[in-house]
Recover the amino acids of this structure.
C-alpha cells in the first residue's frame, strides 16, 4: 500500500535510481538485496510446493492402505473354494485365494513403507 511505500522509500531510493540509470556506475550492493530476496522467495515457494506434494502423497498412501485393508478383510472372509481373480493390466487372471491374500498383505506393507518414507522426508 502507499503508506508502506512511503515509509520504506528512503531504503529503496538508491536502488530505484540505480535501476533507472543502468549506464552509470552502481554502488556495490545497491541492487543485490532485492536479488537475494527474490532468490530466497523462489526457494521458499519451491519448498512450499514440495511440502504440499509430500503431504498429498501421504494422504493418498493412507487412503490406498485403507482400501487395501478393507479388501484384505473381505477376501479373508471368503470360503476357501471361492474363485478369486487378480487384475493384471486390463485383464483379470484367476488366482488361488492364498495368492490374492499374500499379494494384498505385500501391497499393504509396501504402502506403509512409502508413507513412512514420505513422512521422514516431510520432517
Amino acid at each position: 500500500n502507499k503508506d508502506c511505500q512511503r515509509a520504506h522509500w528512503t531504503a529503496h531510493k538508491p536502488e530505484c535510481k540505480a535501476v533507472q540509470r543502468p549506464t552509470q556506475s552502481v554502488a556495490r550492493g545497491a541492487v543485490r538485496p532485492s536479488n537475494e530476496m527474490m532468490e530466497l522467495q523462489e526457494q521458499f515457494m519451491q519448498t512450499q510446493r514440495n511440502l504440499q506434494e509430500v503431504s498429498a502423497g501421504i494422504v493418498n498412501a493412507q487412503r490406498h492402505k485403507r482400501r487395501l485393508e478393507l479388501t484384505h478383510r473381505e477376501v479373508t472372509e471368503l470360503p476357501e473354494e471361492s474363485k478369486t481373480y487378480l487384475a493384471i493390466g486390463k485383464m483379470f487372471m484367476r488366482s488361488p485365494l492364498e495368492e490374492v491374500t499374500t499379494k494384498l498383505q505385500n501391497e499393504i506393507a509396501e504402502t506403509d513403507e512409502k508413507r513412512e518414507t514420505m513422512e521422514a522426508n516431510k520432517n
